[in-house]
UniProtKB/TrEMBL annotation:
Pfam families: Thioredoxin. This is Thioredoxin H1. One of its GO terms (molecular function) is oxidoreductase activity, acting on a sulfur group of donors, disulfide as acceptor. Keywords: Disulfide bond, Electron transport, Redox-active center, Transport. The lineage of its organism: Eukaryota, Viridiplantae, Streptophyta, Embryophyta, Tracheophyta. Residues 1-113 form the Thioredoxin domain. The gene is LOC110798901. It comes from the Eukaryota. Belongs to the thioredoxin family. Plant H-type subfamily. InterPro entries: Thioredoxin-like_sf (IPR036249), Thioredoxin_CS (IPR017937), Thioredoxin_domain (IPR013766), Thioredoxin_H-type-like (IPR050620).
């Protein structure tokens, strides 16, 4: 499964937990897109996320459908779609709520810069 530079969709809680564990071990930045199939803005922002994933193979991009994984969405207290959560070693370091293209790109860039500085 070539996961270089793509958004990984988690369809089971187990898949989600595996990604989380992988991100924790590698100490990589993980960006989680909490999305829903019926959400228009989510569809609009999806290609932007895919483009970021292509450009930044060092960041783990994961997509979680809140209807498919209700438990995960409630564990992370997701109230609006899309919500982008930035995790490092299992801790939330940032959140972007809504299909805010610029804010999403800037937040990713900011955290990639931080990780490059500390690496």
């Amino acid at each position: 499964m070539g996961e270089e530079g793509q958004v990984i969709s988690c369809h089971t809680v187990q898949a989600w937990e595996e990604q989380l564990a992988k991100a924790n071990e590698s100490k990589q930045l993980m960006v989680v897109d909490f999305t829903a199939s019926w959400c228009g803005p989510c569809r609009l922002v999806a290609p932007i996320l895919a483009e970021l994933a292509r450009k930044l193979p060092q960041v783990i991009f994961v997509k979680v459908d809140v209807d498919e994984l209700k438990q995960v969405a409630s564990d992370w207290a997701i109230e609006a779609m899309p919500t982008f959560m930035f995790l490092r070693e299992g801790k939330i370091v940032d959140t972007v709520v809504g299909a805010k293209k610029e804010e999403l790109q800037q937040t990713v860039a900011k955290h990639v810069a931080i990780s490059t500085a500390t690496a």
